[in-house]
């Protein structure tokens, strides 16, 4: 007879004792369960004990999380969390260094558990750890363990970072600024200061004033990837917390100290692979640096500014200097003004007064900056562009100024200038760190590309918008390749000619649309069931291979890793926590199992419980599209297994696979694309013999039957 649904069969173990195999009634109070377990081992005072999961982080079992206990779970009997917290905090006050070290090690192991954390904090555990960190009697393992335990306890959000004292923060700053320091201490100290800077503006200002930028540069130059990542994290946190003027001053100083060159040579092109966290911080650094262009982009030209009028005249003179001097000699003031107006029109301004063209924001003064940079750093290319187009027929000339203004807007959109930083994005461009004045240099390449594309399209003034659409596509496609240098970008974008863009468009259109002939549509409909079966098989195989997922905390982008996979017989989801840097574990080593038969439903996006609990913050908005959960029966209650996919593709593969297991249709965007690709390939294979044969829209009519059927040929009659 099957046991009731609220009863699970588990094992309970204790050191130096024979394990117990019991049937746990989830409806029974936990205190009563503990009493029965302790009585079986003849242990008095059951209130002094608690149950823990034997695997993973050995979390304590409470009334809130007891539903996570499943058939076959292994629990262990240990000291109650309040007594354990009391014991370890007494150990922190031990006169023996080894005693303090051992207490800290156990504290670090138990700190990820919320129940234990609350007991430690209620007994002033953070203050005791803070005293160890502030005293700094041992700058080695004891200090590193104290910092790690402090970070783990604070990670739960029970206590705000803003409550930390100034002396404590200054002491942590001292550890960052020390030259001779244990290699395990400084990354932890940097991580603590990063959390302080992001959470408390007041303490962030203290960190900014106490930690010199030169010190962070020293840490970045140490060939220790963990130390480099934490130093870059603190650097970007300080930049994000600074005002616009302070940020500009800090970035100017960092570029003067050759930070860009060091990042390009020793981090981006390092032999070790670039981690996700470092990629995010490089993205933030790129976004903040490009953000310095926003004030110029938002500022229109002031027609009464003497400096800006002189810049416009310098732009005109760089193109028409010799011509203007020879023709303008001896002319009156009115004639000179008329000549200047004509030259500005030749330069490509829509109005004789160029200030009117540059009043538009964006791009504002940033377009003028780009044009001046091009004229000064590539004078021959600038003169050739202007003079070549001014000598063409009016209808085929490419207007330099108008093109520059629109191109500046386009580059700002492609590079997201002025947009807030994403909490999770890693989309930085290596080319940005390989070149000084990268935005202006990119403009110089792009304006020459625009002129080249204009000639290839044989465009006229009426085709201006079409040319800009093609240039946008050329730039976007090339930037998506993430070229490592400006020269490589120049090479790739110049090979992407107008003809190549048309070919790519046609190819994509054929892949997307296919043919609409009714016979082909009928064939595709007949092929769909078989191909959907292939896709379903692939999705289930992917689930069997398994995926590493990240748990998302309330403060940091990424937290611990866990692994989940489908059993080969498609009957169980197996999962468990794994360590950072360790490969995917074998399925049989995973401690947790969820029978597929117990799964009720698949939830995605905002319907997931772990998304609803986190509210509507920036991080939640970023991960909402990657979140999914499965609800399952756990006793009489409904429980959830929550996921946050590492990428959109993984999200589609997992939700498709789980839908297939539940007998639901696979409706993801990835399934639609895969089905379309398979249908296109299979249709082309079936129609190879009909190549160049027109397929009619309607089947040919069947001819009427003959008037008689006397046309049978007698094969027995031999021919003469």
From TrEMBL:
Task of the protein: Involved in cytoskeletal rearrangements required for phagocytosis of apoptotic cells and cell motility. Acts in association with DOCK1 and CRK. Was initially proposed to be required in complex with DOCK1 to activate Rac Rho small GTPases. May enhance the guanine nucleotide exchange factor (GEF) activity of DOCK1.
GO BP annotations listed: actin filament organization; apoptotic process; cell motility; phagocytosis
Signal sequence bounds: none
Protein name: Engulfment and cell motility protein 3 isoform X5
Cited InterPro entries: ARM-like, ARM-type_fold, ELMO_ARM, ELMO_dom, ELMO_domain-containing, PH-like_dom_sf, PH_domain
Keyword match Lipoprotein: no
Keywords: Apoptosis, Phagocytosis, SH3-binding
GO molecular function terms listed in the Swiss-Prot or TrEMBL record: SH3 domain binding
Gene3D superfamilies attached to this UniProt entry: 6.10.250.810, Leucine-rich Repeat Variant, Pleckstrin-homology domain (PH domain)/Phosphotyrosine-binding domain (PTB)
ELMO domain boundaries: 307-479
SUPFAM superfamilies, alphabetized: ARM repeat, PH domain-like
Keyword Acetylation attributed: no
């Amino acid at each position: 007879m099957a046991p009731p649904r609220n009863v699970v069969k588990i094992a309970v173990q204790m050191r130096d004792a024979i394990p117990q195999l019991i049937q746990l009634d989830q409806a029974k109070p936990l205190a009563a369960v503990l009493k029965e377990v302790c009585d079986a081992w003849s242990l008095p005072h059951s209130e002094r004990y608690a149950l823990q999961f034997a695997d993973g982080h050995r979390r304590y079992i409470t009334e809130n999380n007891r539903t996570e206990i499943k058939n076959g779970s292994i629990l262990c009997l240990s000291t109650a969390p309040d007594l354990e917290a009391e014991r370890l905090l007494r150990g922190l006050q031990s006169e023996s260094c080894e005693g303090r070290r051992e207490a800290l090690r156990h504290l670090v192991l138990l700190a990820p558990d919320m129940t234990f954390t609350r007991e430690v904090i209620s007994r002033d555990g953070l203050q005791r750890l803070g005293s160890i960190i502030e005293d700094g009697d041992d700058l080695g393992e004891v200090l590193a363990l104290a910092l790690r335990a402090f970070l783990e306890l604070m990670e739960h959000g029970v206590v705000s970072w803003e409550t930390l004292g100034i002396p404590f923060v200054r002491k942590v700053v001292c550890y960052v600024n020390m030259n001779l320091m244990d290699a395990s201490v400084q990354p932890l100290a940097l991580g603590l200061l990063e959390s302080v800077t992001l959470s408390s503006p007041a303490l962030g200002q203290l960190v900014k004033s106490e930690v010199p930028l030169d010190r962070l540069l020293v840490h970045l130059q140490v060939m220790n990837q963990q130390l480099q990542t934490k130093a870059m994290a603190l650097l970007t946190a300080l930049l994000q917390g600074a005002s616009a003027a302070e940020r500009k001053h800090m970035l100017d100083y960092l570029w003067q100290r050759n930070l860009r060159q060091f990042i390009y040579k020793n981090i981006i092109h390092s032999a070790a692979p670039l981690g996700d966290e470092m990629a995010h911080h490089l993205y933030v650094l790129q976004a903040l640096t490009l953000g310095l262009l926003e004030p110029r982009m938002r500022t229109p030209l002031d027609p009464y500014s003497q400096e800006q009028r002189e810049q416009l005249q310098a732009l005109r003179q760089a193109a028409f200097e010799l011509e203007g001097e020879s023709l303008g000699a001896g002319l009156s003031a009115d004639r000179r003004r008329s000549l200047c107006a004509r030259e500005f029109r030749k330069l490509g301004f829509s109005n004789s007064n160029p200030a009117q063209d540059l009043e538009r924001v964006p791009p504002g003064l940033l377009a003028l900056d780009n044009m001046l940079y091009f004229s000064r750093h590539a004078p021959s290319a600038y003169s050739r562009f202007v003079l070549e187009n001014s000598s063409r027929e009016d209808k085929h000339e490419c207007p330099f100024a108008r093109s520059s203004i629109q191109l500046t807007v386009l580059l700002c959109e492609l590079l997201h200038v002025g947009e807030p930083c994403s909490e999770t994005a890693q989309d930085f461009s290596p080319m940005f760190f390989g070149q000084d004045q990268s935005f202006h240099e990119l403009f110089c390449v792009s304006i020459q590309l625009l002129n080249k594309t204009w000639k290839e399209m044989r465009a006229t003034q009426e085709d201006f918008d079409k040319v800009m659409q093609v240039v946008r596509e050329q730039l976007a496609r090339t930037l998506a390749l993430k070229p490592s240098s400006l020269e490589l970008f120049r090479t790739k974008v110049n090979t992407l000619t107008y003809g190549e863009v048309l070919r790519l468009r046609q190819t994509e259109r054929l892949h997307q649309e296919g043919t609409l002939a009714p016979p082909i549509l009928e064939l595709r409909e007949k092929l769909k069931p078989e191909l959907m079966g292939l896709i379903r098989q692939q999705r289930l195989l992917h689930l069997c291979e398994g995926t590493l997922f990240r748990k998302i905390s309330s403060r940091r982008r990424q937290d611990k890793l866990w692994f989940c996979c489908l059993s080969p017989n498609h009957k169980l989801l197996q999962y468990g926590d794994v360590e950072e840097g360790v490969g995917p574990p074998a399925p049989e080593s995973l401690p947790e199992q969820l029978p597929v038969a117990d799964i009720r439903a698949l939830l995605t996006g905002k319907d997931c419980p772990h998304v609803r609990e986190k509210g509507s913050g920036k991080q939640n908005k970023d991960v909402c599209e990657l979140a999914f959960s499965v609800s399952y029966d756990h006793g009489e209650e409904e429980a959830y297994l929550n996921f946050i996919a590492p990428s959109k593709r993984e999200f589609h593969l997992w939700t498709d696979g789980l839908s297939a297991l539940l007998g639901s249709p696979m409706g993801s965007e990835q399934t639609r694309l895969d089905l379309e690709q398979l249908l296109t390939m299979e249709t082309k294979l079936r129609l190879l013999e009909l190549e160049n044969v027109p397929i009619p829209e309607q089947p040919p009519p069947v001819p009427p039957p003959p008037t008689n059927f006397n046309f049978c040929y007698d094969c027995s009659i031999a021919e003469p």
